[in-house]
Amino acid sequence: MDKMESLAFNRICACFTLSSLAGSDTAAAVGALAELDDMIDEFYSEYKELVSPEEYETAKRNPETFIALIDRAHLHYARLASEGK
Length: 85
Description:
The protein is mainly α.
């Protein structure tokens, strides 16, 4: 799986996990938050060159920021692909 496919998959997983937060099941919400936390850590580890430590910390507090960071990374790699790099 290339970076753009991986990012698209990560976005789908993150959005699906975020949707778990909307329910009334507290245990599911706690599990979803832990899963998101792990996703954010893995994303930051893989894409440190595109994400500042401050953005990483913001994403940990606000999962919507995480989605925006995934989108930005995807756009970055789409631009590189269109430039032939």
